[in-house]
Amino acid sequence: MKLSALFLALVSTLPAQSTAVQAALATGTYFPLDVGDRWVYREDTRFSTATYQTWRVDRTAASNGNTYAVMAIEGPGTFYWESWFRTDDSGKIYLLTGMGDVLFFDPAALRPNAAELQLTGPGSPVSFAGFGTFPDAVHYVNQIDILDYETGILARGIGLLTSTETVEAGSSGGPELIRTLVEAHLAGGIDFPATESSLDLSIESTLLDVGNKKVTNCAVPCYFAACGLAPGADPPNTYKPCARARVALKNWPAGQSRSVTLQLVAPGGTLAFASTLAMDSTADSVTYLQVPLYSAPNQPFAPGSYQLQASTADGAAQSSLTVKIQ
User: What is the pTM of this model?
Assistant: First the structure.
């Protein structure tokens, strides 16, 4: 669906949107179905609080001449379900059932209509904590059965923000399932990350084939004719294996330590490598560095399982990975 000039004019009069919101709006759909899309929801029920469920579009599949986006729903616990959706040229969403296609959502029609999700009004601005302001989010109601109905909010470009399933049954009536979006990743690189603070640690691979020289050689080559007469270059055929590591502070509070120690610990517990990183002062900061996998030139570390560890100087956060050297 293409955005009209009127809609774009409306967007320009609203508070500034984040880059992620602007990118999401450009997709034009209230129900994204691209392979790779992923949403994480907090679920509150009558039996538990703050459990989590992941929705993701895993793949496409064909049935009766139509192509469907297969959405997997996983959690809490071992729960798993798949639903097949498809979109037609007008933007309507259909759900494949045992009875064939059922109209699931019509973004152009208010209730009453034939869709399962019934829009209760035109799009209007909705501010969603941690995500931004969506200019034309829509509210819906879904009559699940004679006693249960669901209300919710869909935002253009990101999909479901929140929903509440309610039971109409006298003294036992009331909400029984509340979903709240905490994180979304949309195909094309549009991210609405959760806002929790974290220390993230990663490495190019947790299996490093040093013996067959399939990792980066950090030996310094000779870059000019007379480099043999000046310090800096390593002798020809020098092997200094190393691996790229990434350390990131996300949503890091002001006032907490930004000094991070990175260590590589050998299988016997001895320290193989250590470095202290001074992360920058922004809320989200990232540092890359090469971790040496040798004790001296042409002397790689012995094969085995090593621990790559990162920790802030004040002990507020730690992270670790097991890295196998072979």
Answer: 0.69
